[in-house]
Design brief:
GO molecular function: ATP binding; galactokinase activity; magnesium ion binding
Order of helices and strands: HEEEEHEHHHEEEHHHHHEEHE
Organism: Alteromonas hispanica
Largest sheet: 7 strands, mixed
Shape: globular
InterPro entries: Galactokinase, Galactokinase_bac, Galactokinase_CS, GalKase_N, GHMP_kinase_C_dom, GHMP_kinase_C_sf, GHMP_kinase_N_dom, GHMP_knse_ATP-bd_CS
Number of strands: 11
CATH class of the largest domain: Alpha Beta
Catalytic activity: alpha-D-galactose + ATP = alpha-D-galactose 1-phosphate + ADP + H(+)
Number of domains: 2
Bound molecules: 2-deoxy-2-fluoro-alpha-D-galactopyranose
Distance between the termini: 14 Å
CATH topology of the largest domain: Ribosomal Protein S5, domain 2
Structural class: alpha+beta
EC number: 2.7.1.6
């Protein structure tokens, strides 16, 4: 992103230079899927794709936002009356975060905003969280609000849960706000404690976008959440974070089979996430590889959130890498992307193996992004 060109574009739209440009990244989750809303562990990294927001203050109580990625559509609303917009769906991420921000910081005032981004949408790389956190970063910086990264993430999640209508967990907003360059972040979603650990210099993060557009995401996502809550309740714990595999096996015959399998995924995924993060720190790639393979199998068989083209991508990359790297589906599921931790000298081979057969086998073209882990939101 060229800041000079973006500033000129802001000037073209609003007749003044922006006071600041804020940025928030998308994310890739290395391991720990659907564990966040169960109080568990996740291990994502912020990536070098994100959302940029140029901003200046307005004297009135109005937010005006222009979206370059939606043909310069403009949306405008008063801070005194923030309603859901049925016409311009994208604008509800702005309306939602401004509404929850204003509840906590009533002094927030009007703003002109210009937004652009390059996180592939609907691909499981958190384009929405990156959008929410970038808007929060821009407005809180304009008005010098004491909003730290964790608080920004909680507001972004609240906006998504209460205004946009997705019962997401905290992972995406928190990594977008708090990521570190070159590092993945182990997050305990119960205590919100964070530990950053360097990614191995021998490996690259490679993301393969299946280009299967995620279908039924919100309804299936919310259903998984309900099934997990039902599992916790049948086990007599406040969240599946508190459950062990022994407790689950003992209660198996008293619970619906589907709830058993959903709970099994969460309980085993928490164990795998901690094991993978420890192993990565120790440079033990073979253990990371095994944990990622088991995570994918668990998402496919027990949590049932993968689709055949994604399973195919994982199988061909897994066969190529063996224990030298890891591969699994990343994100909420039902399409989207695969993440692979690939030895630097095998990146071309991964591209080749995907190019060779993915289209013929599935009818979809894959996009491949070799990513770096980046810093979280800044202005
Ligand atoms: C989506 C949600 F937004 C996250 O909170 C998380 O649950 C993820 O799916 C699955 O791990 O990205």
């Amino acid at each position: 992103m060229d800041n000079q060109i973006f500033s000129s574009s802001f000037e073209h739209h609003y007749g003044e230079v922006p006071a600041l440009i804020a940025h928030a990244p998308g994310r890739v989750n290395i391991i720990g899927e659907h564990t966040d809303y169960n109080g568990g562990f996740v291990f994502p990294a912020a990536i070098n794709f994100g959302t940029w927001v140029a901003a200046s203050k307005r004297r009135d109580n109005t937010i005006v936002v222009t979206a370059t990625d939606y043909e310069d559509q403009r949306n405008q609303f008063s801070l005194n009356d923030i309603q859901y917009d049925k016409e311009q769906g994208w604008a509800n991420y702005v309306r939602g975060v401004v509404k929850v921000l204003k509840e906590d910081f009533p002094t927030v005032g009007g703003a002109n905003l210009l937004v652009t981004g390059n996180v592939p949408q609907g691909a499981g790389l958190s384009s929405s969280a990156s959008f929410e956190v970038a808007i929060l970063k821009a407005i809180s910086s304009l008005y010098k609000l004491p909003l730290d990264g964790v608080k920004a993430a909680l507001l972004g999640q609240k906006a998504e849960n209460t205004f946009v209508g997705c019962s997401c967990g905290i992972m995406d907003q928190l990594i977008s706000a708090m990521g570190n360059e070159g590092k993945a972040m182990l997050l305990d979603c119960q205590s919100l404690s964070i530990e950053h650990s360097p990614l191995p210099s021998t490996h690259q993060i490679v993301i393969i976008n299946s280009n299967v557009k995620r279908g039924l995401v919100d309804s299936e996502y919310n259903l998984r959440r309900e099934q997990c809550e039902s599992g916790a309740s049948l086990l007599g714990v406040s969240s599946l974070r508190e459950a062990t595999i022994e407790m689950l096996e003992a209660a198996k015959s008293d619970m619906p089979e589907v709830v058993y399998r959903r709970a099994k995924h969460i309980i085993t995924e928490n164990v795998r996430t901690l094991a993978a993060s420890d192993a990565l720190k120790a440079g033990d790639i073979a253990t990371v590889s095994k944990a990622m393979a088991q995570s994918h199998a668990s998402m496919r068989d027990d949590f049932e959130i993968t689709v055949p083209p994604i399973d195919y991508l994982v199988s061909i990359i897994d066969e190529l890498l063996g224990s030298s790297g890891g591969v699994r589906m990343t994100g909420g599921g039902f399409g989207g992307c695969v993440v692979a931790l690939v030895p630097t000298d095998s990146v071309d081979a991964v591209k080749e193996v995907v190019d060779k057969s993915y289209f013929d086998k599935t009818g979809y073209h894959a996009d491949i992004y070799v990513c770096t882990a980046t810093q979280g939101a800044f202005a």
